Amino acid sequence: MVMHVTTHLREFDLTPEQFSVLFCLSKQEGINQKELALRTAKDQPTITRILDALSKKGFIEKKTSETDRRAFLLMLSPKGREWIELASPAEAKAIAEVVDGLSQEELQILRQTLLRITDNVNRHTKE
């Protein structure tokens, strides 16, 4: 599935990981790196690497937090906003192709199963 999405996002010079970070920022800008890592289920080294790549591409901007001078708030740049709008249909098409032929019931079971697995992982990594 990741390879299929990768193929669809290649023309936008984005990896699925980069897309997920941009997509998350498009839903809520002005969050810090730690919060973004939590929302995208990435560890700190991975989110740092992704943010560095997105910054080099000109897709994100960092602004110093007014409440914590050590923290940066992350926002999409105008280019990042444009790119996420262009890439979103390609990502959606890739996902639709992957789940093609699954009934709504099967999709619901898949979602519930994946959420349960995610909850288990989260619960066991906190222990």
UniProtKB/TrEMBL annotation:
Keywords in alphabetical order: DNA-binding, Transcription, Transcription regulation
Pfam hit, one: MarR
Domain HTH marR-type: 1-119
InterPro entries (alphabetical): HTH_MarR-typ (IPR000835), WH-like_DNA-bd_sf (IPR036388), WH_DNA-bd_sf (IPR036390)
SMART domains given in the database record: HTH_MARR
Domain of life: Bacteria
Name of the molecule in the record: MarR family transcriptional regulator
